[in-house]
């Protein structure tokens, strides 16, 4: 854990969650093992840097804090740290570049061409052209001073500066050996091949990093799979209970509707009976009045 404490304050990318700043490394009360406290860049965490009754770090937002087991976060920290040390990104020093250029000049472009021309007729003097083509690494053509003109005698036997002789006025050219003469196309093709090889190595490293991240994602998914299955099982149970409750509610509503209709019918009947009783009472009162009036004694 001590070697990762220097990473506190660095950004870490957590797959399927987002980026955050590492702010805490250590134990968490009530949880086994070592945990890393990450302050996410958005309000998508689970806490504010506290767990239980203890505050472990200050979060930027009310719910941007997240605690992750350190062993799960170590590969992400190491991959982020290693990506900053890509050996392909280191440029060569000027001294090494200069030595490489000199070696290329000595090994690839050391060639000489000698052309000597003599007269075929009278014993007239003709210039002998000796051209030493030493091509530089930047591909520039030789200067005018590189050409030297030397007078030749009237004799047919003469020697050039490189030791090749002319016979009967023929023009002789020094053959370039395959060891010393390398065309421009081969030079550029070798350079392109080296660039392509470096690019392939870089892509292979990127692929290895992606595979590593993919394996971590697979491990995380395998760890979450039982919980997901449990959630799905609970969800099915809740849906089943919800359907049963809905069915019971419909039954109760139907029963209440029937009872309401029954009570309304009974109420109608009671009202009818009450009205009949009122009518009976009124008729009885009239009868008693009439009967009492006829039965009174006369004075």
Task: Give the overall shape, derived from the CA principal axes.
Answer: elongated
**Which class of the domain at 2-85 in CATH terms?**
Mainly Beta
What CATH architecture label of the domain at 2-85 applies? Answer: Roll
* SS-derived structural category: alpha+beta
Distance between the termini: 129 Å
Main β sheet profile: 4 strands, antiparallel
Mean pLDDT rating = 72
Helix content: 40-55%
The counted number of beta strands is: 9
Q: How many individual helices?
A: 3
Spans of 5+ residues with little confidence (pLDDT < 50)? 83-98, 107-182
Strand order of the largest sheet: 1-2-3-6
CATH fold topology of the domain at 2-85: SH3 type barrels
State which percent range the strand residues make up.
15-25%
Report Rg: 53 Å
Order of helices and strands: EEEEEEHHEEEH
Q: Which superfamily, in CATH terms, is the homologous superfamily of the domain at 2-85?
A: CAP Gly-rich-like domain
Characterise this structure.
With 299 residues, this protein is of the alpha+beta class. 46% of the residues lie in helices and 15% in strands. Among the domains are: 2-85, SH3 type barrels (Roll), CATH 2.30.30; 109-181, no CATH class. The strands form three sheets. Strands 1-2-3-6 form a four-stranded antiparallel beta sheet, covered by helices on one side. A three-stranded antiparallel beta sheet has the order 7-8-9, with no helix packed on it. The N and C termini lie far apart (129 Å). The model is unreliable at 83-98 and 107-182 (pLDDT under 50).
């Amino acid at each position: 854990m001590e070697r990762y404490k220097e990473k506190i304050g660095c950004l870490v990318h957590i797959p399927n969650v987002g980026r955050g700043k590492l702010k805490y490394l250590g134990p968490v009360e009530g949880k086994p093992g070592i945990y890393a406290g990450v302050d996410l860049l958005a309000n998508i965490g689970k806490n504010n840097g506290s767990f239980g009754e203890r505050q472990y770090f200050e979060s930027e937002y009310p719910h941007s804090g997240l605690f992750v087991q350190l062993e799960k976060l170590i590969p992400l920290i190491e991959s982020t740290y290693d990506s900053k040390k890509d050996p392909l990104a280191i440029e060569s020093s000027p001294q090494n570049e200069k030595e490489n250029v000199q070696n290329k000049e000595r090994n690839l472009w050391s060639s000489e061409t000698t052309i000597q021309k003599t007269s075929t007729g009278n014993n007239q003097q003709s210039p002998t052209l000796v051209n030493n083509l030493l091509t530089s690494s930047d591909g520039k053509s030789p200067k005018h001073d590189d050409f030297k003109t030397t007078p030749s005698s009237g004799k047919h036997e003469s020697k050039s500066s490189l030791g090749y002789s002319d016979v009967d006025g023929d023009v002789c050219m020094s053959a370039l050996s395959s060891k010393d003469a390398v065309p421009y196309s081969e030079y550029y093709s070798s350079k392109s091949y080296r660039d392509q090889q470096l690019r392939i190595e870089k892509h292979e490293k990127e692929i290895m990093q992606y595979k590593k991240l993919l394996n971590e994602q697979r491990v995380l998914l395998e760890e979450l799979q039982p919980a997901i299955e449990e959630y799905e099982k609970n969800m099915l149970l809740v849906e089943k209970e919800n359907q049963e409750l809905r069915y019971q509610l419909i039954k109760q509503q139907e029963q209440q509707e029937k009872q309401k209709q029954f009570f309304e019918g009974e109420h109608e009947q009671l009202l009818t009976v009450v009205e009949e009783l009122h009518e009976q009472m009124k008729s009885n009162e009239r009868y008693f009045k009439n009967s009492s009036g006829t039965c009174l004694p006369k004075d």
